Amino acid sequence: MSDLDITYYSPKELLESPKLLGYMDFINSCYLPLHLHFHTFTTARFSDLEDFKTYVRDGNVTLAIARDISTQDIVAAGGYKRMSDTEAELTCMSTDPRLGGRGIGTHMDKDLEKHARKNGFKKMHAMVIREHGRVVEFYERLGYVKKSEELIKPGGTFPNVVEVNVWYMDKDL
């Protein structure tokens, strides 16, 4: 998509960015309770900036921010976190809900995979909430394959979700 400018941030660059709060706010806006598509959250994805910083630092997260070239508005965000020397997990994949169906998510995923491949990763994992509408089918179209499924109840690792079915999906890069 030639109308998007995608910028990648290493964990260090991200944590030092004066725009970090804006990035977190965009991601949170895509995961708000009663969101059109992602209605399974009871609170925002990150409770505050310190929570987001901890997630980035502890997860060794590389984040991509996509902006509309003409307006410089953020239209999508996504990233991956290192799982091992050869495996990464998609994280914070989000597209402005007003722009759904325009191929931005597909473009972001392909760009993230390309970036991860350039950095030596051979496999990408995705944790997909089944109740998020057609998101599972979206990842299947991109070549991800379901490896397992788990019923997650509120509390523990995911305190901000209602009861959901999580599909763990993988793709060779």
Automatic annotation (TrEMBL):
Top-rank lineage group of the source organism: Eukaryota
Molecular function GO terms recorded: N-acetyltransferase activity
Keywords: Transferase
Domain (N-acetyltransferase) ranges: 4-173
Residues annotated as signal peptide: none
CDD domains per the UniProt record, alphabetical: NAT_SF
Alphabetical list of Pfam families matching this protein: Acetyltransf_1
Protein name per UniProt: YALI0C03267p
